[in-house]
Amino acid sequence: MAFVSVTQVKPGDKISQDVMTQKNNLLMTKGTVVSERDLEVLRAFLIAKVHIEGENGAVELAENGQNAENQSAQVSESILAFYNAYDKMIVLLKKVFSLAASSGTIPVLDIRTCVETLISHIGEYSIVSFRPAKYHSQDYLIHHSIKTSLSSYTLAKWLGFTQKDLIPIALGGLLHDIGSSKVDSTFLMKSSALTSVEYEEVKSHTTLGYQILKNVPGFNEGSKYSALQHHERLDGSGYPLRLSGDNIHTYSRIVAIADIYHAMTSPRMHRAAMSPYVAMEELSKQAFGQLDPAYVQTFVHKLTQFHTGRIVKLSDNRIGEIVFSQREHPTRPWVNVNGKIVNLTLERNIYIQEVIQ
Q1: Are residues 31 and 16 in the same domain?
Q2: Total domains in the fold of the chain
Q3: Residue 77 domain-assigned?
Q4: What is the pTM of this model?
């Protein structure tokens, strides 16, 4: 192991000891393979030197850190299992959408089994920072559906729903857009504004989805209603039925929040991905009348509850560390940038663009 200047560190080098900030928060973990982004972070936090594995690094690890290495291997296996389950879900969901488009039989047992397997690795999923290993824009709807499923399950768990509801809510999130399989794909992938006629066809995915699912055995009614009602709003401004208040199923209220969040934070054909923090601010605005305010409050609170120490990129491209946040303004914390505190509550023209670590 060598203790070297950051100026000597190259992409591909391996960190052999945790790197801490001046505030004693973890910046980079032991075992990190350094990337160009990591070098940028190290420089931003004025880290002068780091421990890098040399030619004898493996020997030293064996001598001093075998337990840590074993733990790291276990974590890696757990993460790998999650991504493998996610990839299998991609394959299955593409098949399901294809069957739905041709009015084929929906493989209920396969879907439930795949969802339960993916959920068993939910500990490796982060709503804010998860990125699929492989992402193609033409597969947006598939990825969106899976992430909506995982986030709906997570939110429902935060809200205290029991096990009998959790998997049905996850299934509702997974298949909430199944009706899109019968919508002209050129409208769904269009990079410019939709015409009124095109928009009406896209909106029909809600009723089409319910028609696909309503006679499928083995699905909870709430899961089916998630397809029909996820665009309904509490004030009656949504579609397709302009339902309001308690007429909107509980599952649909949960799925709506996850659906909106991931629609905003995922890259689309017509725009780049939105910052998670900006998306949370938008959800909070919609909680005044359109979305369930208690559910939104829980969602935002939980996503920001433990973000102190998180490394973020601001909208002006500066990199900093979240050091404090007020409960009243969870999406606008204080960020330490090179020793200077940027209070986003006061500096409203700046926002968190990206979560780095």
Answers
A1: yes
A2: 3
A3: no
A4: 0.81
